UniProtKB/TrEMBL annotation:
This is AraC family transcriptional regulator. The lineage of its organism: Bacteria, Bacillati, Bacillota, Clostridia, Eubacteriales. Pfam families: DRTGG. It comes from the Bacteria. Residues 45-105 form the DRTGG domain.
Amino acid sequence: MKVCELIDNCSFKLLSGGDLERSISSVYSCDLLSWVMAKGKNDTAWITVQTHNNILAVASLLDFSCVIIPEGIKVEAEVIQKANEQEITILSTELETFEIFKIMYEAGIK
């Protein structure tokens, strides 16, 4: 699955853009940043309710495909601007984490 497919087929909203053709090889959900840094891996779609600048550092460090903010949680303009500068893709959705995992699983991501 590619990041753009979440936008085109699953009604995810693009908040900041990086490489929308980038493949997603895994999905991970956690809000404890140190845990994400220890467990995350390249090409992951990371689901988090965190919306501060530190998520950008973690996403960049681990080279994630995208960051997904669930449940329509608002992301401040400052974070979106910085994500655009760093070419980090942030997506937003009204879906809950379980529903996002279901979409990924049905797309073959496990």
